């Protein structure tokens, strides 16, 4: 074994090697990604968004973007590696191999007389009697004297010339790359080694496990408390109107933890007076309604008032402490709304259906919070079934501006979009008094708004038609287009202080029975993930149908091209219900933009199950089954009955339609209520 002094010098080299193996390739990958990353601007370029400062690239913003945890860790590791390289280089100079001829300044094979002359010359220079410097004394004793002794002794010189060492042939040496104080396991060093082993191997993993378990027991994977999910699940009702979704949303456990200070009382009172008209209070009994409102839990009162401050754009005058709570509330809002949406569409009955009405309400609340538009703006007014809410998300627009352009026969948002750019500029300049810069801002936002189209089919794989009890496969291609050519983009949201990506929810639902048959979240931001998912789904579908390798390859290439052109594939399965005709509707709802949602009607005909239970035998013996699926799109959006939702439909007409469909299929009429029995308290998210 090598001595501890020799082996301890290997410890820095060992650490350097272990660090370099993952660090060097990881740094190269990060650098290549940074160089190849496209610098395409995907956020809104209007003046209002620029003034908001959300996308401003100041020096502080650049530093904060760089100073992420991963980047700082990477820099720190490279600094440690640089220090180790310097330290290893320094100790390598000190631990050079013993070279007696070189020490005496002679060439190999020098004679005895030359060795003595060199020794005398160096003695005059380094001998303690001649040179009082301690370093000179150390060098003379450890190197010069040792070299002279090794070369003047015949045996030592012969060994050195043959084997490179004065002591002769040296055996192979092995050592442990650990510091010397850890190898001397006695006294304090042994205790340090023991503590290190216990700390690294036992305590550190135990602490990490405790932290992970304590956090995972409190939060879901989306960083939402389990208590919040339980609350949302309990208070979610099938008949929950969109205007009442707010009452469920504010009950999140995260919001209940926001502190309510005594100093918040006066600012909240002022805020209450500003947003009182949005709180759905009965004006006939306003005093009783106000007293009832303030008797709620203080956290509920504070949260609702802060959300109304966002919807009415009254947050500018909030004090600093309340403004901090306001931003914290908005930061958590998107993921809480996403979980609330999942609680609305989660299977609630034996058929595995969720609820449509509250799901639409959640999306509309999300749109209003992101765009800072009051829920009352969704009331049908001025001949427009969608209200003034879509107009309010445009820059420089207000309720007064909407009234001015309504006098010019532009009463709906679709009419404004259908106008040419010149006609729109003329309208906004003359009727609304906009400057050319303000008109340009409106055009920028209109070019950012997405346009959605849906191609959806439902079929039983490998069979003709759909029979009751079949596992039906839904395949939908959702395509997004923008006038500016972007696919994935950040919405125009100057009043929402955080980055928010667009998300879409595809719902296959029966509006009459309020049932959601299928739901899935769709994102257009990650093209690579969408290509992978679409390729895998198409390949599995084609392989299941017995397609050839060439056909599968062509189908996959076509799917990849569709994804690159702005389409996303959504696939799902559900069990076919009882025999009958079903008028379903596919909803593609955006959680960020108002007025960009899309509805597509889908008629599904479910046939009676054959007696033999074999689809193949029935297809051969019986007559050919017609395809029970028809598709048609609705370009016109349904109006409001009240201001609750643009998707609200007349209940009586819906019931008459269902009765006619049921009778036509020869099935006894069934009562269709919007509620479904809740089965158990536990649930799984789709």
From TrEMBL:
Residues 623-654 have a biased composition (Acidic residues). The chain crosses the membrane at residues 12-32, 66-88, 192-213. Keywords: Chaperone, Endoplasmic reticulum, Glycoprotein, Membrane, Protein transport, Transmembrane, Transmembrane helix, Transport. SUPFAM superfamilies: Chaperone J-domain, E set domains, Sec63 N-terminal domain-like. GO terms for biological process: post-translational protein targeting to endoplasmic reticulum membrane; SRP-dependent cotranslational protein targeting to membrane. Pfam families: DnaJ, Sec63. One of its GO terms (molecular function) is RNA binding. Residues 613-686 are annotated as: Disordered. It comes from the Eukaryota. It is found in: Endoplasmic reticulum membrane. It is a multi-pass membrane protein. Residues 99-164 form the J domain. Gene3D superfamilies: 5' to 3' exonuclease, C-terminal subdomain, C2 domain, DnaJ domain, Sec63 N-terminal domain-like domain. Its main location: endoplasmic reticulum. One of its GO terms (cellular component) is Sec62/Sec63 complex. InterPro entries: C2_domain_sf, DnaJ_domain, Ig_E-set, J_dom_sf, Sec63-dom. This is DnaJ domain. It comes from Macleaya cordata (Five-seeded plume-poppy).
């Amino acid at each position: 074994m090598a001595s501890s002094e020799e082996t301890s010098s290997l410890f820095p080299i060992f650490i350097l090697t272990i660090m370099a193996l993952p660090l060097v390739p990881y740094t190269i990958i990060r650098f290549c990604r940074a160089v190849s990353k496209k610098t395409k601007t995907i956020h809104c370029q209007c003046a209002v968004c620029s003034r908001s400062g959300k996308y401003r690239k100041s020096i502080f913003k650049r530093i904060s973007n760089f100073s992420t945890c991963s980047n700082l860790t990477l820099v720190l590791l490279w600094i440690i590696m640089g220090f180790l390289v310097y330290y290893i280089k320094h100790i390598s100079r000190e631990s050079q191999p013993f070279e007696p001829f070189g020490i005496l300044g002679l060439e190999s094979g020098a004679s005895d007389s030359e060795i003595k002359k060199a020794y005398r010359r160096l003695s005059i220079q380094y001998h303690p009697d001649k040179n009082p410097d301690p370093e000179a004394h150390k060098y003379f004793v450890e190197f010069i004297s040792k070299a002279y002794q090794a070369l003047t002794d015949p045996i030592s010189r012969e060994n050195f010339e043959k084997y490179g060492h004065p002591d002769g042939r040296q055996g192979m040496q092995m050592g442990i790359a650990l510091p010397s104080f850890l190898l001397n396991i006695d006294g304090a060093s042994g205790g340090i080694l023991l503590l290190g082993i216990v700390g690294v191997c036992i305590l550190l993993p135990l602490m990490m496990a405790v932290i992970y378990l304590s956090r995972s027991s409190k939060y879901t994977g989306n960083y939402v408390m389990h208590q919040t999910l339980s609350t949302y699940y309990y208070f979610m009702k099938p008949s929950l109107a969109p205007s009442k979704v707010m009452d469920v949303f504010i009950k999140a456990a995260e919001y209940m933890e926001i502190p309510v200070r005594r100093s918040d009382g006066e600012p909240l009172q002022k805020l209450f007076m500003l947003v009182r008209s949005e709180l759905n209070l009965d004006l006939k009994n306003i005093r009783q309604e106000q007293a009832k409102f303030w008797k709620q839990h203080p956290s509920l009162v504070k949260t609702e008032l802060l959300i109304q401050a966002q919807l009415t754009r009254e947050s500018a005058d909030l004090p600093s402490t309340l403004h901090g709570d306001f931003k914290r509330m908005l930061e958590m809002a998107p993921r809480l709304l996403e979980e609330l949406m999942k609680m609305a569409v989660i299977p609630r009955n034996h058929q595995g259906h969720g609820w449509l009405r509250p799901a639409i309400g959640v999306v509309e609340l999300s749109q209003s919070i992101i765009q800072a538009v009051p829920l009352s703006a969704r009331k049908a007014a001025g001949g427009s079934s969608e209200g003034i809410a879509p107009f309010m998300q445009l820059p420089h627009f207000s309720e007064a501006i909407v009234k001015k352009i309504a006098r010019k026969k532009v009463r709906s948002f679709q009419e404004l979009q259908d106008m040419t750019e010149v006609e729109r500029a003329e309208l906004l300049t003359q009727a609304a008094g906009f400057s050319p810069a303000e008109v340009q801002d409106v055009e920028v936002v209109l070019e950012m708004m997405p346009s959605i189209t849906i191609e959806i089919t439902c079929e039983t794989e490998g069979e003709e038609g759909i029979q009751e009890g079949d596992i039906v496969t839904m395949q939908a291609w959702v395509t997004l287009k923008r006038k500016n050519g972007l696919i994935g983009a950040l919405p125009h949201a100057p009043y929402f202080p955080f980055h928010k990506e667009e998300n879409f929810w595809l719902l296959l639902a029966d509006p009459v029975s309020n049932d959601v048959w299928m739901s899935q979240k769709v994102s257009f931001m990650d093209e690579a993930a969408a290509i992978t998912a679409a390729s895998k789904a198409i390949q599995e579908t084609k392989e299941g149908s017995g397609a050839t390798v060439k056909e599968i390859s062509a189908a996959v290439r076509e799917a990849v091209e569709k994804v690159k052109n702005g389409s996303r594939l959504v696939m799902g399965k559900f069990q076919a219900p009882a025999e009958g005709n079903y008028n379903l509707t596919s909803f593609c709802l955006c959680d960020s933009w108002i007025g960009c949602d899309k509805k597509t009607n889908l008629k599904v005909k479910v046939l009676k199950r054959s007696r033999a239970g074999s689809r193949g035998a029935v297809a051969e013996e019986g007559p050919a089954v017609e395809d029970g699926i028809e598709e048609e799109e609705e370009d016109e959006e349904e109006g409001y009955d009240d201001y609750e939702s643009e998707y609200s439909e007349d209940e009586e007409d819906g019931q008459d339609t269902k009765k006619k469909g049921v009778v036509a299929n020869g099935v006894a009429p069934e009562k269709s209520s919007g509620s479904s029995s809740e089965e158990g308290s536990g649930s799984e998210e789709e």
